[in-house]
Amino acid sequence: MNNLRRYTLYIENITDIAALILSFAAAYLLRFYVFQSETYSPQAYLQLLLAMIVAYIILDIVYLGRSDFLGRNAAAELRETFISVSFTTLSLLVYVFFTKTNDLYSRIFIFTFALIAYILMYLLRTFVRRKILPLYRTGKGAEKVVVIGTRSDVNRILRRFARHPDWRIRVVGLVITDEDCKGQYIEEIPVVSNFKLMLVDLVRLEADSCLLATDLRGEELEWLMNVLTDMGKVVHLNIQEFDLSVSIDRAIDYLGGCAVVSYMPINPLSGRQAFLKRVLDILLALILMPLLLVTLAVTALAYKIESPGPLFIDRIRIGKNGRRYYQHRFRVLYTDAERRMNHGENGYTKWGSFLNRSHLARLPQIINVLYGDMSFIGPHSPSLVSFLNYAPEKRKNLTIKPGIMGLWSCEDDPDNLIENERSYVEKWSLRKDIWLLTVMILRYITFQASPRLNMHYSPEVFAEELAFLKDYQEEQKPLVLPPGTYSAPRDGKAIGYAVVKRAFDIVGSLAAIIVLSPLMLVLSIVIMTDDGGSALYGHPRIGKDGRRIRVLKFRSMRQDAGDLKKLLTPEQLEQYSREFKVDNDPRITDVGNFLRRTSLDELPQLFNILGGSMSFVGPRPIVEEETTIYGSDIRKLLSVKPGLTGYWQAFARNLASYESGERQEMEMYYIDHQSVGFDLKILLKTFGAVAKMEGAK
Q1: Distance of CA 376 to the CA centre of its chain
Q2: Given a cut of 60, is residue 242 above it in pLDDT?
Q3: Which of 301, 352, 481, 690 would suit a FRET pair with 682, their CA atoms being 20 to 30 Å apart?
């Protein structure tokens, strides 16, 4: 059995057992709680549940291992589900007959279980195959593959990948060896390099492996494979002779339907070892989560008093196989640390110094562990510059996830470190991880950890935090507005209106968040299930008085929506440059299209309203590029908070454009006539538009 078949079988087993247990529970509740008409023994039904699981395991060993879960159509799935449920049900009847316990069980229960199991197992299997497995391909766990070969070979590989449902892999780049196509796209996959620049470009690319489909042979092929494995990449060598559809067993693996022989840079962790390590990481992260939450609360309070600003510092780090991720840690410096140090003062906050000395500043990396970017024990996670300067021996050690701590945190000799980390990866054991964790925790408690864990001894980390805070201060600077004579009214009527409006915003947004939180949770899950990306995004906009804000929305576009040249036609690019939107936008997902038509993508802005950066009613929040469109009227536009809805959105929206000037006129009209009554009129109109699904296009 090849790896794809084996892993898929595990997923099918988990899906089926979940369906059987849920069906058993549903039948049990229906028979003995909803339609209770006789006494029953919970212990006896527990034994029947165990018998059901044993029966399924027998079915798995005898039959399921030979079936093709990925290749089934609807009719085949109905047949396979019928076989699985029928075998399990008959096994229960046989168990009852031979144990002579038929007086303990209800026949109605068994047949109810069979009916529910048939429906539920079919639905769950179909959902997993069509939604969950393709979602894995877009997530962090998928193997990122670069295909290397001639133009014709690459096209052949991509056609085979498109036809094959291998959910474990995602092609992230192409290297064309016989043409210079760098920067172009083939089947929406970027050509990242050519043969001459390949060795330079692949070091920087986030990829786990390379699939070679080249016509190189002998010494040239051996040289290329050695160079790629020195980068820490797994090399899959496609052997076309084994792609033939012949009915003989072959001791070879397949990647996206392509027969390959795989060469590893070092001996990797087995699937069982990787699973155990991941389970240990999750358990430890959950155990330490209360400590993180308490530290977060204390840090928020301390910085509210001592140094208002961001709580976390996010730094780009290199993880497994060169993957980039944002590594989190608590801020330990004043937001104006650079100015303080220039005047001879200490740049560390009092609380930050404690976080640093106690190593609690690294505690937010628990989030990285839960998210799958890091492990508790592993190699050091370098910056991009450091990674590019790594020797091949050191780069190979990053074929597993980096660690919050590891041998690097207690070993000062670089030569010994590389050798010891290699031994750790190739001879990993759960006992070794637990031992290292115990040693490092004791060192933390006694303040005897390696200096490299302490920020005071890391100029690179110190400089990164200073740069982060410098960028933060720049972002907090309001937009410099052009000269103008407009001044917002400040009489009693205007002040009273502002007070009433803010009170309504607070009460209304808080109530809406509480009532709509289940819906927002469901929408978040649906969005993440659709293509694996984050459900929310914060778009930078310009708020009241030119302050820079981030407007929250549910993501309605593809993850690569920023690549305009790839996704938009020349005509759409021209329209986007004028209107900052396009008709029939190909970047919008199917789920996103529904969210926009129903305006549900705007729901997260309730948090902006509660926080005070937006209001329920006001002008549409604009990006910085749009400020030039308003000319001297920009001061007037930014004299009020932007709104979740407004006069333009409710009464014209897509019918009034910047090009015609109608949108600007409508925004100015609202500012001149804003009042409680006008706001209520706009809100009522908005509710009517939402009910008719007249959302953004």
Answers
A1: 20
A2: no
A3: 481
Same domain, 305 and 203: no
How far apart CA 24 and CA 62 sit, in angstroms, is: 23
User: What does the pLDDT read at residue 22?
Assistant: 94
Statement to judge: residues 443 and 366 lie in one domain: yes
> Which residues 6+ apart lie within 8 Å of 427 measured at CB?
none
Q: Which of 439, 472, 505 is the last residue of a domain?
A: 472
CA 689 to chain CA mean position, Å: 33
- β-pair type (324-330, 536-542): unpaired
pLDDT digits (tens, 9 = 90+) for 85-134: 999 999 988 888 888 877 777 778 888 899 999 999 999 999 998 888 88
Element (H, E) at 44: helix 42-62
- Token readout for 548 is 């820079």
HSE (side-chain half, CA atoms, 13 Å) at 69: 30
Residue 427: name the closest of 411, 407, 443 by CA: 407
List 102's β-bridge partners, or say none: none
Residue % of the chain over a pLDDT of 90:
27
Q: What is the pLDDT of residue 97?
A: 84
Tokens describing residue 441: 């925790």
Residues 80 and 104 in one domain: yes
With H, G, I as helix, E, B as strand and everything else as coil, classify residue 656.
Answer: coil
Q: Are residues 16 and 67 in the same domain?
A: yes
The residue type of 143 is: E
pLDDT tens string 461-504: 788 888 888 888 877 788 887 777 777 788 888 899 999 999 99
pTM of the model: 0.72
What count of other Cβ atoms lies within 10 Å of the Cβ of residue 112?
19
State the Cα–Cα distance between residues 356 and 456, nearest whole angstrom. Answer: 8
